[in-house]
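**Tokenised fold:**
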Amino acid sequence: DIKRDTYIQLLKIEPIDQVQSKVFNQEKFSRLQRIGVLGFENKTFAPFKDKSAGDVVSRQVYQELRANKSYSNIIPPQLMEDARFKIVKTPDSVVQKHPTHSVGEDTKPLVMGDRVDAVMVGAVSKFTDKYVDRYGKIQKSIASGLEFTAFLLDPQTREVIWGARFVGRQRPGLQNMTQHKGRWLSKADFTRSAMKFVLKEFRNRD
């Protein structure tokens, strides 16, 4: 779990391009080479629940990071599914295995026998192209809405290295959020476009 204080720090940051982001440990962030991306938790809810939300957003995180030449290896969510966190309470204690979505103290994710430098985790709370009209009926919207948070964790200490929060909807005239000028984007395309702003520190880390 991410500490409440860390999340509050994100909330206090003034949004730029609908993104609140912060590098919490610049030294570790600048040394990253191998990043494992876990499937994001789907927290969308009725009447706008979308079962694909977590998969789509985490896949776009992976695609954006993979295109960055600064990193030696980005491990996709489907390979991270088989990873397990070893939680060691004391040197002499029994090692207990937990699913990848449970991050505990002193955790070490193992991916094909090799450790990663950091693990990307996240949760999606909105992923929709619908809205409720004045009569309470669900209608199709021309604008896609997206809300999610993402955190980059040190796999050994659970320390948050970087975090970001995106809360937004495609808006008329918001040219810098899309390369598809003149048309509204689908949920997946809007997510892809937004991710370039969410992960801006990764592209400019040098």
